Amino acid sequence: MISNKPNKYHVSTIQRAVDVLNLFRESEKLSFTQMLDSLEYSKSTLFRVLHTLEENRYLSRDKHGWYELGTSIFVLGNRVSQANQLKKVAGPHMKKLSWENNLAVHLGILDRLEVIILDKCDPPNNIKMVSRAGATVPAHCTGQGKTLLAYSSLNVIKTIVSKYGLTRYTENTIVTLPALLKELEKIKERGYALDKSEHERHIRCVCLPILNQNNQIEAAISMTGLVAEFPDEEAMVQKVGVIQETRDRIRRDLGFI
């Protein structure tokens, strides 16, 4: 049952913008008068909402002054579509890799300035990692983050560092930009990243990039385990081959190879 009590988290201005955008579910173009009649807002209120949406490219106007969805809607929709396709294709391969090696497998993307875990697979008979799909992780001290940064532009790297800093989580965390850039160069040269307990003291990780047909970074796939499962760098590097095989199967299924 829906309550009629006002929601203290409800923001009326944002709701008005959402109401306007929802009108385009069934109409390709709408005039100001049509929206005014449908929403029953005052002219001044509707004008302000439309102006804001147009300024941010969520709406645009044709030569007759009619409103239609703008490029920002297309960009966001395309981003969601790509992420869903990536998750759908990679899922079965990730599960197989996880279950065969009895280790957690993660799929991550760089969404603007955030490293997001797009998907995660845990093996049936092992300790479950606290990470979860949809969560964000630090870029400078995780296998996912360092891999995604290694294949990003210097401008993106510096912008992320400027915004989030280089927080120290363990004694192994990289905390200076020169050291981070040196690490990213090494990752790109060898084709994989290692997280040697840089974010969490008892966790280690091996990560590889998923590149598209233009050799641009789309995502990162990693295998994560406890220090007991990855006691040294040699044990971590031994997993590069099986992750690479899985990564290449995902790339083929996505049409990148």
Helix content: 40-55%
Count of DSSP strands: 8
Shape estimate: elongated
The CATH homology group name of the largest domain: GAF domain
CATH class of the largest domain: Alpha Beta
Mean model confidence by pLDDT: 91
Tell me about this structure.
45% of the residues lie in helices and 18% in strands. It is of the alpha+beta class and 257 residues long. The chain folds into two domains: 58 residues, Arc Repressor Mutant, subunit A (Orthogonal Bundle); 175 residues, Beta-Lactamase (2-Layer Sandwich). The strands form two sheets. Strands 5-4-3-8-7-6 form a six-stranded antiparallel beta sheet, sandwiched between helices. A two-stranded antiparallel sheet has the order 1-2. A hairpin with a 6-residue loop joins β6 and β7.
Task: Give a concise summary.
This protein has 257 residues and is α+β, with helices and mostly antiparallel strands.
Notable features of this structure?
single chain; Beta-Lactamase; two-stranded antiparallel sheet; 8 strands; elongated
Write the layout of secondary structure elements.
Layout: H1 12-22, H2 32-39, H3 43-55, E1 59-61, E2 67-69, H4 71-101, E3 104-111, E4 114-121, E5 136-137, H5 143-150, H6 154-164, H7 177-190, E6 193-196, E7 203-211, E8 217-226, H8 233-237, H9 240-253
Antiparallel strand pairs: 1-2, 3-4, 3-8, 4-5, 6-7, 7-8
Helix pairs in contact: 1-3, 4-9, 5-7
